From TrEMBL:
<protein>
    <recommendedName>
        <fullName>Type III pantothenate kinase</fullName>
        <ecNumber>2.7.1.33</ecNumber>
    </recommendedName>
</protein>
<dbReference type="GO" id="GO:0005524">
    <property type="term" value="F:ATP binding"/>
</dbReference>
<keyword id="KW-0547">Nucleotide-binding</keyword>
<dbReference type="Pfam" id="PF03309">
    <property type="entry name" value="Pan_kinase"/>
</dbReference>
<feature type="binding site">
    <location>
        <position position="171"/>
    </location>
    <ligand>
        <name>substrate</name>
    </ligand>
</feature>
<keyword id="KW-0418">Kinase</keyword>
<dbReference type="InterPro" id="IPR043129">
    <property type="entry name" value="ATPase_NBD"/>
</dbReference>
<comment type="function">
    <text>Catalyzes the phosphorylation of pantothenate (Pan), the first step in CoA biosynthesis.</text>
</comment>
<feature type="binding site">
    <location>
        <position position="118"/>
    </location>
    <ligand>
        <name>ATP</name>
    </ligand>
</feature>
<comment type="subunit">
    <text>Homodimer.</text>
</comment>
<feature type="binding site">
    <location>
        <position position="85"/>
    </location>
    <ligand>
        <name>substrate</name>
    </ligand>
</feature>
<comment type="pathway">
    <text>Cofactor biosynthesis; coenzyme A biosynthesis; CoA from (R)-pantothenate: step 1/5.</text>
</comment>
<feature type="active site" description="Proton acceptor">
    <location>
        <position position="94"/>
    </location>
</feature>
<keyword id="KW-0173">Coenzyme A biosynthesis</keyword>
<feature type="binding site">
    <location>
        <begin position="6"/>
        <end position="13"/>
    </location>
    <ligand>
        <name>ATP</name>
    </ligand>
</feature>
<keyword id="KW-0963">Cytoplasm</keyword>
<keyword id="KW-0808">Transferase</keyword>
């Protein structure tokens, strides 16, 4: 049994795997300590791994170290891929884990991983196992907040998954069109550019906004190579943990 924890900017996911089978996932915006204790008591995991993009909770590390054989993900950890990122020390561990997740579910393929959360990240892994890097772009909520923060009169609008109009007939609708349709157009454009360079490209989408992305991309010309995997980072963390103890 493996216990994996992914701490993002606004939410934490805790999961347990039996080999490669995902048994349970818990998401919280609170401290993960209580959930970790419950998972440890219920499943008695032998190993654990933590990825965090925020300041690490030392109490959580102590708890995991006492209860399991613990690994904290960093770019210095041995991985079954070649990391060509120019500044590996600044590479977010969530991006690295997502890439490993894509490698697990689409082995020996050119894969573009799109993670839609606070930021939207694009990461390329080639068929020969080389991680090339990618791009970081503002996420949906960050775009809505920026329009409100950096103008005097534009209101703060919330994401509306049911809004699809191209032409907004009010300020609220115009913001929804600009942010939501604009981000989907960005995704489509990036995917097309990568597809022109890397043949038979597989696109794997994950993250909190991934369901919205996939629902809008599913009718695109590349939809047959589109995979939605909301637990991609967790799958990648489990693969990384297993690799450490082969």
């Amino acid at each position: 049994m493996n216990l994996v924890i992914d701490i993002g900017n606004h939410r934490c996911k805790i999961a347990v795997f039996d080999n490669n089978e995902l048994l349970e996932v818990h998401a919280t915006e609170e401290s993960p300590l209580e959930a970790v204790d419950r998972f440890v008591e219920k499943y008695k995991p032998e190993k654990s791994i933590l990825s965090s993009v925020v300041v690490t909770d030392e109490a959580l590390i102590r708890r995991l170290s006492l209860a399991t054989t613990f690994v904290q993900l960093s770019t210095a950890l041995p991985l079954p891929l070649k990391n060509n990122y120019g500044t590996p020390s600044s590479l977010g561990t969530d991006r690295l884990a997502a890439v490993m997740g894509s490698k697990t579910i689409a082995p020996n393929r050119n894969v573009l991983t799109i993670n839609g959360g606070t930021c939207v990240t694009f990461d390329l892994l080639t068929a020969d196992g080389a991680y090339k890097g990618g791009a970081i772009s503002p996420g949906l909520n960050m775009r809505f907040a920026a329009l409100n923060t950096f103008t005097d009169k534009l209101p703060l609008i919330s994401f509306d998954e049911n809004f699809e109009a191209l032409i907004g007939t009010s300020t609220q609708e115009s913001i929804l069109s600009g942010v939501q349709n604009g981000l989907i157009a960005e995704l489509e454009g990036v995917i097309i550019q990568y597809s022109e360079v890397y043949e038979n490209l597989v696109v794997v989408v994950c993250g909190g906004d991934s369901n919205f992305f996939v629902s809008r991309l599913k009718n695109s010309i590349f939809a047959h190579n589109l995979i939605w995997q909301p637990h991609l980072v967790l799958i990648g963390l489990n693969a990384i943990l297993n690799y450490q103890y082969v």
